[in-house]
Structure formats: structure tokens, C-alpha cells
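Model: Ready when you are.
Researcher: Fold this.
Model:
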Amino acid sequence: MKATLTVLGSGTSMGVPTIGCSCVVCHSSDPHDRRTRPSVLLQFGGKVVLIDTTPDFREQAIREHITQVDAVLYTHTHADHILGIDDLRPLSYHRDGKIPLYARPDAAEFIRNMFRYIFDADYKFGGLARLELKPVDGPFDLFGHNFEPIPVIHGETEIFGYRFGSAAYLTDFSEIPEPSFARLQNLDVLFLDGLRHKPHPTHSTVENSIRIADRLGAKRVFFTHICHDLPHEATNASLPPHVRLSYDGMKLEFEI
């Protein structure tokens, strides 16, 4: 089955432009250099699956005319990946049942505690998002298709990327454990953390992610979680032909 992936956001945790920054990329007139916080949307068989709810989710949803979300997958619990959770409210009102949220068991518990007003409160006036946490630690079926969590290391913390059909989405990692490489074979589309050229303790560099892309041999590779060190056009010109920076609003098809 064909699925469509939409890049909702391709930026780093502070977004691009970054508040108070006077650099060339933050003041660029190229719309590809405007990067909201990192997230993607998957559409297949009439279903819509979101990966992460960023602080920019409201803006992203309005921009992409999102009217439906049937499930959310969380990679980890950093602010730039979860703080848009309350903006699921209007989407949760116009459906049968609660929106399921899939996350590592530790991440699900963190989200429950941080947003206790959603999950544990009894607010008689309504107005709360209708959400249900579903901890996962292995492959699971979602609307008839296999979704596989892929463990990656983000600094000193293990978090999840996800594989779905011929595509995989790995954001926010500094290292990919050896067992995870075996789960990433025969990919058409691969998203990798590509923060910048300069080393970072919790993120992959452009050069490291190119090496990972070469090892895995995916046909199409896109970098995400991109900071303001990387101008879109100039960086793409320096990358291998099958590797590109993703950008907000980018759409592509793949087999799920």
C-alpha cells in the first residue's frame, strides 16, 4: 500500500529562525530555511498517524490542513517533542474513542505525570483532550500495518525511532546501537538526525549521518532536526545525490 509522509517540522529544539539570532540562515529569505520543531505525519488507507506533538503542532496542523489524527507515536519526552499535546484537543472531539498515544513505557509514564490534568483529572466542564496512553516496547500493529520501535541513543538516554514498511524515522540520536542496524535494512526512505557539522554530545552530525546512510544503503535519505548552521540550498549542493535536507511541508510517497 502506498503511504504519504509529510514533514511537519524539520528544525532543532529552538526552531529556525532562532529567537534573538542574527545569523544568515535565521534571516534567510529561502522558505526552506524556516524550520519548525521536528515531526512527521503519515497517511495511509484513510488513517493519519502523527510522530511527536511539537510546540509548533498547532501552526503545523493549520498549515497542512490536518483535520484528523488517528494515533500518535512518541520518540521521547523532550519538550520539543511533546509540548504540543494539548493541541490534539479539537482533533480528539470529532472521533469515536480516544486518540491512542504510543510510547516507550518510561516515556508514557513521564507524559502521564507531566500532563496529569489530561489523563487523571475529572474536570466537569469538559475541554480536555481525549487521549489514551499505550506503552510499547516492541513491534505493534497499527491499522493493519506493522510499526517497529527502533532503539537509538540520544546522549546517554535510549529513545525510540520508528520503522514502518519501507521507511524509517530516526530523529534525535547521537548513536545507533548495533542491533538496531539489523532492523533498518532494505529501506526506501530513511530520516536521520543531521543537526550540523560541528560535533554535539546528543545529536548526529551531517558527516556521521552520511556514513550511516552509506552503511544502510537506503535509496532516499533525508536529514531532520536541522539547526541554523545549515543553509538549505548550499548544504544540499554539498551532499551525495541520494541525501537531502528535509524541509517543512515536504511530501513523499513510500510503501508501508
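Researcher: Now this one.
Model:
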Amino acid sequence: MRAAVFIALFDFLALGALGVFFPYFSMYLHTTVGLSATQTGLVFAITPATGMLAHPLWGQLADRSGSRTRVLALVSFGAAAGFVLLGQLDGFWPLALGTAVMALFMTAVIPLAVSITLATVQDLGPHAYGLVRVWGTVGFLVAVVAFPRLLASSGAQPGDLSLMMPATALLFASAGLVALALPRDKTVSARAEAHDYRLLLSEPSFLRMLLFILLAYLCLQGPMSLFPLFVESLGGGVNMVSDMWIIMLLLELPLVAMIGMVQQKVGARGLLAIGLLSGSARWLVSALSSDLNIVYAAQLLHGVTVMGLILGAPLYVDAVIPARLRSTAQGVLAMAGVSLGGVLSNLMTGWMSDALGPRTPALAGGLGALLLALAMSRLLPPLAGSGPGHDGRGKDNGLADRGARTGELTQPEQSIEAGI
């Protein structure tokens, strides 16, 4: 229980840092620095592109060493240093290079935290993961609400978001200190051998999930990244972006806390379908409406997408991999979705926003997500031996079961499928 409290605190600080950075970074690049929408999309694409290297690199280091908490502290401190550097830079190329340095560390924080959380809460019941992870959403919400007020109290000029970088750095550094205090029991410290990563390549359910998450992020990541530019096109500014993020997070809080109960009802694939359809509806409604009240209301669906897709995908993956490969598997999942899918999505939406207007990325993303949801039954079949309410670890459940038969350390059968 002590470990769960520390992880909840880490999530609060780390996602609080992302709550300062993510909602406003495109506005910082476009308004404070003066980059075009295309250049903003390119800089955004650098973060997930760097993550394609960082995710498996840090995941393998964590799994091979067994020192997952120390690696988590290292990448948290590295992210803090990267944001300090980024705040000193100006112009497209310096910002592009600085973003790559920052992203080498920052992109690994959440997948590593996920793998540690899964190991820590596996014996605490089906609701433990949601009750721990919800503190990350609380931290994100606090940051989204507090940052515009911090700007106002500092006397910053309208459009000047320079304080974003030191504030984000401070929160990541604080999260790193908490990571150093995380307990290191034998479950968290399970070590993988040099070639164990090959086991992941032999599991069809894992490989299908990689393709699915790539396509899902291709549809949904770009519209989310450039959402502040869409709000600006409707006449809004930083305060309106903040207000809309509050709306997004209102429903996310209870849904994340209740994810164990929802997963027991609909299963892992049901969670993914719910998340994908809600993301589609959110962006279609936003793209087709000029009424800010309707756009505001549509942002409530963000919380459903987070619960179903962002948390559901790691839940699915954790059900089919050996415990000693948790960090690598979650890193590869992030590489396929957040990184590769994010790169392609940010590039396409940046171009579409400049060439076809700021509504186009939301419309294209919503339609794409809808088509993917319709194809989901063929692309991502249910886990073998699983159904609604099942945790996916049946006796025919592929890689996880093979690991048990060969003496590999795996999650207990009664554990939940866990996620971001």
C-alpha cells in the first residue's frame, strides 16, 4: 500500500508536468515563438519521433537491469533538464533540436511508470490501478487550471507562455525525487535476459495490438496536438483552452477511477471500442459545429477516450506478456502508437491545417477513427479464452501462459489487465 501511495504521488507530479506542457505547447510555438502551423506540426512530430528510439531503449534498460524505479528517476530528471534547455531556445531549428533532447527522456516517463504500477498493484484487487492512476488525472487537471492563473499573476503579456518551460521542469524534477523513494520489491525488480524481447515478436495478440494502436493514434493524435490552434480559429485563447481542458477532465476523473469495474463488464477489447468511438464522435462534432457551447460539450468525450483507448491498450498488452518484459512491452506499445502514429498524425494535421483549414484535421481524424472502429472485430479479435469481465489470462492465452509453463515470472491470474 505504501508503494501505491508513492506511485500516486509520482503520477500526480508527472502528469501535472504534462498538464502544463501538452495543452499549451502548440500555442507556445505558434504564438509565443511565431512558428507557422506546419512548423508547429513538425516540432510536435519530433517528440513522438524521438520516442521511437527512447521507448524500447529505456524499456530494455529497465527490464534487463531490474532497476525500473531508478531508470524512472533518471528519465524524469532528464526531462526536467530538457525543458530547462528548451526554454532558452528560439527559432525553428534550435527548437527542433531542443525538443528532440527533451523527448529522449520525457517520452519514456509514462510507459515506465505504467510498468511499475502494474507490478505494484497486481495483488491489490481489480480497482487498485484506477484508484492509483486517477491521481495523475487530478495532477493534470490542477496544472491545466493553475497555469493560466500563474501567467496572469506573473504579469506575462498575452500570448507569452515562457513560464511553461521552468514550471514543467520543476514538476518533472519533483517526480524524479519521488521515483527515487519508490519501493523495489521482487515483483518490480524482475529481470529479463538478453534475448527475451524476441518473445514479444512471437505473440499474435501483441502484434495485432501494435497495428491497431498505430492506426488509432494516426487518427486521433494530430487533432489533439493542434487543438489549441482549432480553438484559436474559433476566437479563443489560452484561457479558453484551459477551460476546455477542465471540461475534458471532469468526466475522465470518475471514469479512470472506475476502469476496473468497466473492464470487468466489457473486457479489454470492449474498452478499446468505447474509447475509439468516443474519440471519433468528439472530433466529428467539433469539426462540424461553429457553436462554442457544442464544442465545449463534445470535449467531455475526451475522458471516455482516455479510459477506453489510452488506458485500455496497455491493459490489453499486460494481459499477454511475461511480467519481466513489462517495461519493454509498454515501451514498444508507446513506440507504435504515441511515437510512430503520433509522428505521422502530427505531420498530416499540420499540413491539413495550413492547406485546408483548422477544421480539417478534426474531421479527418473523426472519420478515420469511425472506420477503424468498424474494422476492429477483424483487426483485433478477443484474447483467447477471454470474454466480458475476463482478465484475458486464460489457459490458452498465448505468451503469458507460455511464460508460466517455462518458469517465467508472470502476473497472477486474478490480476487486472492494466494500462497507462
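Researcher: Key takeaway?
Model: The chain has one domain: 2-182+200-405.
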